[in-house]
Amino acid sequence: MKNIYKILIAFIGVLAVSCNADDVEERPVIEPVTAPVLLSPQNDFNIVLTKEKEKEVATTVIWNDAKYDGTATVVNYTIEIAKAGTKFAAPIAVTTTTARFKALTVAELNSALVNGGFVEKEENSVDIRIKSTVGTGAEAQYSNFYTIKATPYHVPLATSHWLVGAATPGGWSWDGDAETEFPLVVGKTNVYQVKVVLKSGEAFREFLSNDFTSGGNWGASNSHNYTYYSGLGYTIDSELVNAADGDSNFKYTGPTGLRTLTIDNGAKTITVD
């Protein structure tokens, strides 16, 4: 009886292997035939991106379908960008779709550019192409490419604070990028530092976010002035004094020029170098 069981188990095993081999052999092969063709945007496209228009369409990318030989299946298209002249050595995937066109918003294009290492607030030459893929086994196909021009806007760090005031380049304004970003020092959790041109004899204030406008929303609870820090026992640089302007802002008394402002919340010091 035991021998019968052993023979039966062996037979089932051989049958299973045979079936799996047949499945592999019968699996449809999908071969690339024609690559997608990028139609738009072309080399004459040039755009300056702004945060104020981030929800608007920056451009609609259009291409002809790719073709594959084999069982009909869904084709995925990925819009890729790269620094011009790099031959897509390090492509950035903007988005993927199954359609043959995609409307990119200003925010989507800007995010791809910034994440791809393109220079903010400067015109960049950007190569753009389409990558098509089918399933997991078929070879990817790539379209032709065009070189467009794009100027991305600055995307502030979520952890940054902000400097606003007549002592700073943007003055008392939140319009556009007038405010000065005051970021955390890389690798630190409580030290803020920025190189900024400070104007002698003028005042400024530190804000915790930049969602204000020139017309209001200043929110004392969302900002720090001179007395906030002096009241906590901070050692404050001698070139910074209480402006005594009704809001107890910082007043910069040093010479006008490029300075490094540092607020170290661990050491409880504020320095101007």
TrEMBL record:
Pfam families on file: SusE
Gene3D superfamilies from the UniProt entry: 2.60.40.3620
Signal peptide: 1-21
Domain SusE outer membrane protein: 25-131
Keyword list, A-Z: Signal
InterPro entries: SusE (IPR025970)
Name the UniProt record assigns to this protein: SusE outer membrane protein domain-containing protein
